[in-house]
Amino acid sequence: MVNWFKGGTGVLTRLRNIFPDPALPGHQESMVERQALAVAFGGSAGDEALTRRVHAAQVGAILRLAPYTFFANLFNLVILFLALAGTFPFWLALTWAAAVLVVLSFGLRSWWSNLKRPIIAASPRALRAATYHSGILAALWACGPLGVMMTDDPSKFLVIACITTGMICAGGFVLATVPAAAITWVAVIAISAACTLVVEDTPVTLSILVLLATYCMIVIGSVISTSRLFVTRFMVEAELHRRGEVIHLLLNDFEQSSSDWLWETNSAGVLQRASSRFSEVCGLPPEALQGRRLSEMLAGAKDPANGWGILAELMEHRQAFREHPVPVKIRGEARWWALTGRPAFDERGRFKGYRGVGSDITESRRAQDLVTYMAEHDALTGVGNRNWLLSRAQDAMAEAYAEGTTLSLLMVDLDNFKAINDTRGHPVGDEILNRVAQRFKTVCDGRADLARIGGDEFAVLHVSSCREETERLATQLIEILDQPITTEHGGHAIGATIGIASTPGHAETIEDLMRVADIALYRAKRAGRGRALYFEVEMEREVRERRELENALRYTLERGGLSLAFQPIVSARSGEVVSCEALLRWEDPGFGTVPPSLFVPVAEEAGLIVPIGAWVLQEACRRAMAADPQIDIAVNLSPLQFAAPGLVDTVRQALDTSGLPPQRLILEITESVLIQDFGSTATTLAELAALGVRIALDDFGTGYSSLSYLRQYKFDRIKIDKSFVAEIGRGGESIAIISAVIILARSLDMEVTAEGVESEAQAEMLRLMGCDTLQGYYFGRPAADFPQMLPSTPARQASA
Ligand code: C2E
Ligand code: CA
Ligand code: CA
What we know:
By secondary structure, the protein is an alpha/beta fold. The chain has 31 helices and 20 strands. Helix content is 56%, strand content 16%.
């Protein structure tokens, strides 16, 4: 009865300790049985009240049969009266019959009073009274056998024998619950019958006596067994009843003292005996719960994924469950319960329903949900984070596979964000990220999953049936940032570049999908930001080759395999070599001659440009120091080198080690250094100028060519890009542009160098326009040897 308490909490464990087992254990049972016989004979059960109740039950059982006994006796009386009529004097027979009736009426009277007010407690005296009553009645009936002695009629003899036998048997059984009364009855009638047999002394006396004795033994044996069984059952029931009351008390105490409650269903899942505590948590009066199914209480039962789906299955299979979380709806509010339950079965093993304990776990569940939310969401923008994306992608991949659709991963990188974040500060950067996320959300809402996976990197998962759909999504993501994002610091132009990869097709695993989408993003960024590019197998090969190139470059740098070539820069007027430009050369045993246009970006990406640049500075200064002191040396600086800390120190060290006078060193930087103003550009330029070195603005006219830079920073030299020089003689605006630059440079006291001079005509034109210095194949290709002071032949001609 209480086995479902196993493993219960608090009070339930206490209950188990009080009642180790639902049924009475074996040793206790045999003890009760032994005691039961004594109690049946009027002994005590140890508990006085219980003893009195047992005795009352014993007597009550006889009394309940009193009407039947009365009529059976009456019937026997009539038959015996008729059988013995004439044998005895009539008055004697009448007196005897009257005596029997009087005794019987006592029994009937007790039956009647018991019917009106059932006796619930009786002393051993009641048992004794029953015994006396049955003794007296038996003694009266004993006259029947004795009457045989006075008759010779064999048919009457038969009647009396039958009645006597019946009396022994029926009386024994009717009185069985009070064994003393039953035994007295049987003994008195049997003894009188035996006496009659002995006195009559017929040829069958002995065999009938044996028969009679056996007969009595059986009846008495069964009386004893019945009475013992009767009392045992009564005592066990009383014990169970007592336990039931204790349990009831404890359970009440449990419900009142804890926040948990008990629940019970029948085999059809309908709630039974709903307690007040249960009705309280359900928000319904106990009557309203009556007849309701447990499943009705649990919200969202249709969704098999939630706690109830699993619970329903467990209950279907009659399995026990422990602290199973299920969502419920109480007065319209979504809450969580934890249910513990066990199936209950009756003695025949038939399912009776479930019993269990429930508790409200809404608060802890909410806390847990918050933790889960935080583990899966980006705290700044509220969209998913990388972890969430990975797990979501896993599911989406399986879905796409099952449905035959395509899962695309869009890696979104924000353009221009880092510069704003660095210059405007992190609070502004955070606000911009948040605003961007909200805009992306409006695009993705309902059709794609959005996550922020890095500083300014977002990722979008999109399931589609065709590529155009995904492309449209990508375009919308880019276009939604067309409008600048306004903060209190003004408008910020932010763009998005997207790399897309799909499965099936580009990758089989989520890790691969992310990797190839990253490659596509990388290519998209290189192809010019603000666009979306789909991954192509070709890109992977490119990346691989780039990585191989990077490894080889690193190896070459370590081995000192890089070298410098020097290209002369001549005076436009005299044609004399006045300086030269150091150009990096890489001759690789595997890759052959790798042009700087190819390996310099690789070095920049791999972070190798800083050590390489330092080496170039050292080597160029050393070689210049060893050559003609009248020829200056120009060294190219990468924007990354310029942004990296320690450039000024590196330059100073190169000068110190080589002993080269600073005024002989010219550092060439490009406009990109000025555009991507890293905050420290002006300072670095000033520090370099303080060292005494000169600064040249390289490739002028290619990039954004803002003339304002020329006013903003102090340059010593401008190098007009070779693309303008190549235009000379082909018409176009190049001559006008070059002239304008030269006039501006003059006014700002800057030297002008024209690059890429390949012909005499170009050289002549540039000289006429007023260029100070010229550089190009016409005057000399980059060569391993440091140039000599003497002008080359074409230069001399040009100057002539
Ligand atoms: P740059 O600074 O503009 O260098 C001049 C480039 O023009 C050199 O190519 C040179 O060989 C080429 N050139 C010179 N005269 C002519 C001509 O008459 N016609 C044509 N078509 N080209 C001419 P190179 O050596 O291949 O270098 C390419 C770029 O690599 C350089 O452009 C420079 O930006 C970069 N670079 C080279 N060495 C270094 C270095 O040590 N450090 C850094 N950071 N970059 C370097
Ligand atoms: Ca240069
Ligand atoms: Ca150049």
